[in-house]
Amino acid sequence: MAEKEMLFVHSLGTWLQVNCDVIKRNNDTINMKCFSNGKIVNGLLAVSLQLAKDSAIPNVMGENLEEEVQVRQWMEYALLINKLSDNITATKHMLEFLNDALSTRTYLVGNKRTLSDVALYKALYPVMVNLTYMEKEKLMHLGRWFDFIQNDQMVRQDNSIVLLGRPLL
Amino acid sequence: MKILGSSYNSATLKLLLASKVSNVELDVLTTGPKHVLYKGQPMLELDSRVRIYSANSGVWYLFRKKFGHQLQDYDSAIDHWMEWEMMHLQPAGDNFHPLSSEKRQKELGTISKLEETLKKCNFIAGTNDVTAADICIWSSIHFMQIDQKDLLTTFPSVKAWYERLLSLKAFQEAVEKSSALNVAGTGTETVGKAKTQNTRAEVKKQATSSVSSERVPNTVENDSPEPRSATEDEITSAVQNWKLGQQNSPSPRILKHPVLPVEGTKNVFITSALPYVNNVPHLGNIIGCVLSADVFARFCRLRGYNTLYISGTDEYGTATETKALEEGVTPQEICDRYHEIHAQVYKWFNISFDHFGRTSTIQHAAICQQIFSDVHKNGYTFTDSVEQLYCNNCRRFLADRFVEGICPLCNYPDARGDQCDSCGRLVNANELKSPRCKLCGSTPSPKSSTHLFLDLPKIEPKLRIWLDTVVDGWSNNAQVIARSWVKDGLKPRCITRDLKWGIPVPVEGFTNKVFYVWFDAPIGYMSILNCYTNEWEKWWKPQNSVEVKYFQFMAKDNVPFHSIIFPSCLLAVGKYLNYEEGKFSKSRGVGVFGSEAESTGIPSDIWRFYLLWVRPENQDSAFVWNDLAQRNNSELLNNLGNFALRALTFLEKNFDGKIPEVNVDGEFERSLVGAVNKELKDYLSVMENARSLREGLRRLLAISRHGNLLMQSSQPWVLIKGGPEDRQG
């Protein structure tokens, strides 16, 4: 279980260009030693948010409080999906929800890429890989967003490109 | 700010608590857009109309708005507990939480972690006052307690914390407001789990109704042929044949490799155009050449013809070299990798190749160079110099794809040497402004390079005579394309290239060049056969007494190379050309890839069926998922599948799996045998010479339709209950 969480938080850290060596696994919880005050940060959400704070990349949490809360809520969804990614039926509702939420948006939050786009991409990747074309066709907006995000090599990292879009013979 | 969709649950209570603690007035509305995730979940709508769907995030926002960064040092602890509340406590208390179906700790185990922490501090995150974490957890505990009154008896510290907070004015007001929603919302006292179960059932109901409304609309016209009946003559001969039946049927052929042409039998040699190696094959490739050829090969084998079906990957050329440079590996490595992918995809599709080879073999180089030497020796080549860009840094002539520069037509800075991606027009590499080498970036300069040309005008008279003798056997598309090429008169074609990945030209002065990929690719039909058997020339140059029919399956855009250039080479060589061809066309386009087809979980036979059903024989066709589903259901499942399954299960259940003696003298049986035979004849006639595989499939389904009609009308499951005389067919 914690394996998946480690991979998730490491890929976020890599994207944020921060040192991931401080992230440790203790039984089934993830923790890291905070660089600035030496305190231990527990849990996937707190560690992810701490990494974002440590990152030199600007505005990964959005540009203001209103954007930050949205980034936060999508982080929650990313964590849920990351945990559920083997359970197709349970994720199905969430995918539809995300599809709906993305129907009018380019990025999840604001007009720039934030931590939430990257986190949700990471969490969704194993789910998207296993969707059939028919399912992907029903999740058009999600697919468009996903394709847009995955085309950034820095975000995609070692993942392969998931083929989306309506195929012609 | 307002709460939309409030109801009597812990998520709404969280927001109410946060609003009281942070002193922010919220409009509490019970209406709101239907929450997509699950009913009963409220959302916080900010003044800017941004909606926050997660109550925890909403609580966090209200706190941050009120207190700013005062609690900064506790951020991580608060985040940790809010995540814990979402991932562990909520699923324990709420059956409808997405994680509730996951394996999880028992409620009591979950709460004991809370107990540990609250033993040591007054508030969860170690602060001196209420935080967002306290609110979220308190709210969940509050609702769990409603279901389970004695929940906290074993957790004194949690109980103390719970009661301490409950005594606060803000908490009392929020709880009161929340309870008011209960009465207004449901009008009953059902709360907690009872309520969540209720919502769950509702959503389930919703889900099922939405599924049924999405059922594939029955808009596609049903173009499968209706069963027809036969004339009296047809019936008589069919019945006669039926009775002679097994004695007359030929004994099955035994397949023995290598398959070689045999005198006195029908020998059929089948190739499908060699797929280019550096791509994963998509359904278009598969249907266009490989699958069609496979169906025909299987048909020929079933008919007892001596059949050989080969294909392989076409591996030389610029595209492979470019890709190899991009990925920093050798072209051979690229080819090895993709050849494997091709082979696997075709294997999954059950393509019955006798041999699936490749063009990067010694045999290929040898035959290719031999054919060229003969053409050269017979005087059908000439040399000419071509001005081409040369990169001094890389010491090589640059193929069009290796040059980039400013488009002379639209000034787009990154036009390629063959085409500008911006204006879409074709560009000549020499005309690019400030050209640069794609590999090293330095500026190439024009330099003349000598190349070998195939003297097509000189071969043309021979080609015309040959075409007249064979073209009638070709598909319509192939005839049209080939004729239009010769109509304008043929022009010489350059057959060498300044590349490294290819077959070296065996002529003094040209040894640093390779053959143009289209010169060597069709020769793959010979060399791949050579890899399969050393006696390959028996197929290409059969003895006079042996009749070999050669069928090539290819895409429309390959027709000129197969019908003009390749035959021209062979005519210039002066042997080999005594075969008959049948040609096919297929569509082009971005497609479902072969490897993707596998990942859909749909068995390959269903794909094979559908691709043949929609097989484009004249025009291009689009691929539509709904149509795939519909065809599968209406034709394969309801018609053929239904017939086969009904017949077989009936046979197994009532006749011990043995087909009993069948009497076909009755009026009904006679007309049935006649009708089926008529379809079968048509089937054989359209399949022979691969005239129309699509039509063949339709005739096949018509036969099974007759079977279903028989089942329907005679109702054997009723007859079987009668006496033994009824059991006769």
CATH class of the largest domain in chain A: Mainly Alpha
Radius of gyration of chain A: 16 Å
Strand content of chain B: 5-15%
Helix content of chain A: 55-70%
The helix-and-strand class of chain A reads mainly alpha
Uncertain ranges of chain A:
none
Give the helix tally of chain A: 8
Mean of residue pLDDT values of chain A: 86
Domain GST C-terminal (chain B): 71-183
GO molecular function (chain B): ATP binding; methionine-tRNA ligase activity
Biased composition (Polar residues) (chain B): 190-222
Protein name (chain B): Methionine--tRNA ligase, cytoplasmic
Q: How would you summarize the topology of this molecule?
A:
The complex is a heterodimer of chains A (about 170) and B (about 725).
Chain A: H1 2-16, E1 23-26, E2 29-33, E3 40-42, H2 44-54, H3 65-84, H4 88-101, H5 115-129, H6 133-138, H7 140-150, H8 153-156
Antiparallel strand pairs in A: 1-2, 2-3
Helix pairs in contact in A: 1-2, 1-5, 3-5, 4-7
Chain B: E1 2-4, H1 10-21, E2 27-28, E3 43-45, E4 51-52, H2 55-67, H3 75-93, H4 107-120, H5 132-147, H6 156-166, H7 169-186, H8 192-213, H9 232-248, E5 267-272, H10 283-302, E6 306-313, H11 318-327, H12 331-348, E7 355-358, H13 362-377, E8 381-391, E9 396-397, E10 403-406, E11 415-416, E12 433-437, E13 445-454, H14 456-470, H15 476-487, E14 493-494, E15 496-497, E16 514-515, H16 517-520, H17 524-532, H18 537-540, E17 548-553, H19 559-573, H20 594-599, H21 604-613, H22 625-655, H23 667-687, H24 693-714, H25 716-719
Parallel strand pairs in B: 1-2, 5-6, 5-17, 6-7
Antiparallel strand pairs in B: 1-3, 3-4, 8-9, 8-13, 10-11, 10-12, 13-14, 15-16
Helix pairs in contact in B: 1-2, 1-5, 1-7, 2-5, 3-5, 4-6, 9-23, 11-12, 13-17, 13-19, 14-19, 15-19, 21-22, 22-24, 23-24
EC number (chain B): 6.1.1.10
Keywords (chain B): Aminoacyl-tRNA synthetase, ATP-binding, Cytoplasm, Ligase, Nucleotide-binding, Protein biosynthesis
Subcellular location (chain B): Cytoplasm
